[in-house]
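Entry:
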Amino acid sequence: MINNRSSNFLEKKQYFAKNFPNYEFEDVFLLDKKHEGIIRNLDTSDDWLMSFDEKDIRYWSMQDDIGQPPYLRDYLGREGSRLQNLLKFCFHKVKFREQNRLIRDSIVDDILITQRLFGNSILRENPVDETPGNPKYSKILGYRVNARWMRYIYLANTITEHQMLPLGGVWVDIGSYYGGLQGLVHKYNKDSKIILVDFHHQLFRSYAYLSQLYPEVKHNLGIDMTLSDTSSGSFNYVHISDFPALKSLKIDLVSNFFSFGEMKRDVFNNYISSPVVNNASTIYTVNRFVSAPFFEKTYDNDLSVWDYKFSHHKVKYFDVFPIHHFAAITRSLLGKTRPRNTSSSYFESILERIK
């Protein structure tokens, strides 16, 4: 295994290219329009990987950290003169003052809800600016956070508080992006075997992030390494096409946050009816009540909360997902542009396997 502690970003790319299969021909026809567009516009060859910049871990054309009010330091660090950047910052503050206020208010709500449920220690202990990938952030109520980080803080707390991962437990997360949530959970559950299931390019983001954050921990690339390694305390990166092979493991927790509701029905059904999900001790999911409301068809499917049926499990907890619930995003609807809440809110569900 590579010595992650002494490696630089180029070595991580070389190690990933050498040891992880190149899924260049991902089946886009099974994907929803959002992810089909991502894959069609992404070169997953070795050339793509070698041109990958460290700043692309968290920020690229299709994803980012969702938002935070602008800070002067973000502008002064850009190319150009300090005066030009200062003027750009002032212009942004004035022109987008309403949007910036709404973003800040939403993050304040997220912080207050998190404090009420879990206290403030995890917020104090985990400032987002001390994690890899040069995250953008604002200091709000004394905490250095952004919108996506507040989501991860809440989810990590919930996993820990509900004891979803026993000592040495196995967690399979479907759609992990850059691994921010996994990094938080590992900090408080160091003996767990964490399996990230995603596309080729997302798994490299996760590997680059987590191997920098935890260079001393095992990082297993691919299904063969994941299944053969029986030890706990590891990160495992598994391509979506290898997901069915995970059925041979005893899995304590399966999770999906937000992406089940984006999938085509056939793909969605393949996941929720799989042995991996059916045999898991706990299922934790956050998804939209309605994927495509009639007045704003956000995704190209007809999924709703009624489709999340897990016949081998019973509901332990169900409620509205409170994080970002009051967020207002400026967008167009029926020819009118203004700040609006999302067309469908999200539900949070924890299920236990029926014994």
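The domain at 9-69+96-353 is CATH 3.40.50.150 (Rossmann fold).
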